[in-house]
Amino acid sequence: MSMIEWKDEFSVGIPDVDHEHQQLIGLINELHNAMSGKNAAMTVTDFLGEIHAHVAAHFALEEKIMREKKYDQYEDHKRDHERLLDEISDIMDDYEENAFYSDEVFTSTLEHWFSDHFKTRDARLHKHLGV
Ligand SMILES: [Fe+2]
Ligand SMILES: [Fe+2]
User: Fold this and answer.
1) Is 6 inside a domain boundary?
2) Ligand 2 centroid to 122 CA: how many Å?
3) Ligand 2 centre and the CA of 7: distance in Å?
4) N or C, which end of the chain has less CB nearby within 10 Å?
């Protein structure tokens, strides 16, 4: 079962960018499958670590483009990226310290952030820069 389903509200209105975000969500779902079920091939720690790394790589690419193009809202956009990475780190800490992890909490953290960030900051960025 998928952890996150693609929703129309995630769309930034640019097919290439939506495709990249769909791939990111696809990857999260694949990792989730590897971590859950009876024959789980991946620990919760590795699962969260991999997602943190892939999300960070996606952000690093966007931030590089913004710097190169001297994007006017770079700082604000980067801060919002850091907000999600911090939230994922908090979830990782919670697992390390309290052995607490909840699919529901993690899914809703990602979904809330995706539906806000994609349609506001990413949509503006890609329309503004045309990349
Ligand atoms: Fe993005
Ligand atoms: Fe972004």
Assistant:
1) no
2) 5
3) 17
4) N
